[in-house]
Amino acid sequence: MFFLAAVMLTVAVCESTEVWLIDGAVTIHSAVIFNSTKLGACISIKTCFNDRAHWAVWTDLEEGEQLVFYDDASCTGKSVATPTAPNGNINFFDQNVGMAGEVSAFKTWKEGMLDSPTKIVGFSTPEDTIDELLSVKPESLIANSECK
């Protein structure tokens, strides 16, 4: 059985893309939703979820796109990029990722953009794990105005 988080952040990055940031290991209590369609736009979570993400789960990324997570709210500093898979997840506490308790912002990224991530993690995620993570719904939503 896969246990999930105490708090979850849901972010719509592109028209159909969803990104969930998950905190904790038992129950999901709340979520916050953003919309962003601009490739490379920095989404800061400093005021609502700073340094709390344990996992990120994403669905429906566009062809060739990746998510890049940063330790600085302005999308600078130490970073890690996901694979280009349209669906997947990343555990920030995994020793190969090395971002435990450090995520303050993220954005979508494509190869060839000027600001390359400092680390790219290569892995694949079974679809059933993604489905299980995304099947749990939060009890309430955090107002998206709390994340700036």
Fold blueprint:
Layout: E1 7-12, E2 18-23, E3 30-31, E4 43-44, E5 55-59, E6 65-70, E7 79-81, E8 88-91, E9 105-110, H1 127-135, E10 140-141
Parallel strand pairs: 3-10
Antiparallel strand pairs: 1-2, 2-5, 4-9, 5-8, 6-7, 6-9
The parts where pLDDT drops under 50 for at least 5 residues are 1-7
Name the structural class: mainly beta
Side by side, the strands of the main sheet go 1-2-5-8
Query: What is the radius of gyration computed over CA atoms, rounded to a whole number of angstroms?
Result: 14 Å
- Whole-number average pLDDT? 72
End-to-end separation: 35 Å
Q: How many domains?
A: 1
What's the shape?
Answer: globular
What kind of sheet is the major sheet? 4 strands, antiparallel
State the share of residues found in helices, binned by percent. under 10%
- Strand residue content: 25-35%
Reading the helices and strands in chain order gives EEEEEEEEEHE
Number of strands: 10
Number of helices in the DSSP assignment: 1
Detailed description of the structure:
By secondary structure, the chain is mainly β. Helices cover about 5% and strands about 30% of the residues. It has one helix at about 125-135; strands at about 5-10, 20-25, 30, 45, 55-60, 65-70, 80, 90, 105-110, 140. A hairpin with an 8-residue loop joins strand 6 and strand 7. The longest helix has 9 residues, at about 125-135. The radius of gyration is 14 Å and the shape is globular. Keywords: Signal.
